[in-house]
Specification:
two-stranded antiparallel ribbon; globular; 8 helices; 225 residues; single chain
C-alpha cells in the first residue's frame, strides 16, 4: 500500500514506452527531445504543489506514501509533476506524427478565448479560494502569452492532446482521489468534482501540459534552424 502513489508514477512512464512499439509513427528520439521541457515544467509545477501544500489546499495520506518528503511535499508528488508531463508530451508528439493534418488550427483561438472568459469568471467569483484562483490565474497567463505574444501556432494540436491525456488523467487522479492518496480542502475549491476529482485539477493539468508543449515547440523550432 505504501507503494501505491509510486506505482501510479511508474504507470505514467510506461505510456511513452508503449508508444515506442508503434515504430511507424513514434521516433525514440522524441523521448530525448521531451526531457528539457519535462524538466522545466516539472520544476515549475512542483513549486506550485509545494505552495498548495503549505497553504492547506491539499494534504496527503501517509498510508499510500513511502514517507520521503521535502517541504511537506511527498517524493511521489514531485515525481508526478515530471512523469505526467513526460507522458503527455510524448502523447502530443505521437498524435502529431500519426495525424499531421492541422487544418482545425483556425478554430483554436475561439476555444482559447472561451477559456479566457472562463478563467476571468472563476477568478472573480471564487477569489477567496486558493486552488481556484491560482489555477485559473496560471491558465489565464499561459493562454494570453501563447495566443497573443507567441509566434508559434500549435494550440489545436495541444487541445487534441489534452483530450487524449484525459484518459490517463482520470485513471491516475481517479485512484489518487478515490483511495484517497490526496485530501482536498473544500474551503479552497469550488466544491465541484468529476469522478471525485476537483474541477480545478482538470485545469491545473491543462496548465502543466500547455507549458510543456510550448517549451517543446520552442525547443524543436531552435533545433530545426
Amino acid at each position: 500500500m505504501a507503494y501505491t502513489f509510486l506505482c501510479i508514477n511508474l504507470f505514467l512512464i510506461l505510456i511513452p514506452v508503449l508508444l515506442t512499439l508503434d515504430k511507424t509513427h513514434f521516433k525514440a528520439a522524441w523521448l530525448r527531445y521531451s526531457l528539457p521541457p519535462v524538466l522545466i515544467s516539472g520544476i515549475v509545477f512542483s513549486a506550485f504543489s509545494v505552495f498548495f501544500t503549505l497553504f492547506g489546499v491539499w494534504s496527503f495520506n501517509p498510508a499510500y506514501l513511502l514517507g520521503i518528503t521535502y517541504r511537506d511535499l511527498p517524493l511521489e508528488q514531485y515525481l508526478f509533476s515530471f512523469t505526467f508531463s513526460f507522458a503527455a508530451l510524448n502523447i502530443y508528439a505521437y498524435l502529431n506524427s500519426r495525424y499531421p493534418d492541422n487544418h482545425w488550427q483556425k478554430y483554436s483561438l475561439a476555444v482559447s478565448n472561451l477559456l479566457l472568459g472562463v478563467c476571468v469568471a472563476f477568478i472573480y467569483f471564487a477569489h477567496t479560494k486558493w486552488y481556484t484562483v491560482v489555477t485559473f490565474s496560471i491558465l489565464l497567463i499561459f493562454l494570453l502569452f501563447i495566443e497573443f505574444f507567441n509566434k508559434l501556432r500549435f494550440m489545436y494540436r495541444f487541445y487534441r492532446a489534452y483530450l487524449v491525456c484525459l484518459v490517463p488523467f482520470y485513471i491516475c487522479y481517479g485512484l489518487i482521489s478515490i483511495l484517497p492518496v490526496i485530501y482536498y480542502n473544500n474551503l479552497e475549491t469550488v466544491k465541484f468534482s468529476i469522478l471525485m476529482i476537483p474541477l480545478e485539477s482538470h485545469f491545473l493539468m491543462m496548465c502543466m501540459i500547455m507549458l510543456g508543449v510550448y517549451l517543446l515547440e520552442v525547443y524543436r523550432s531552435k533545433l530545426t534552424k
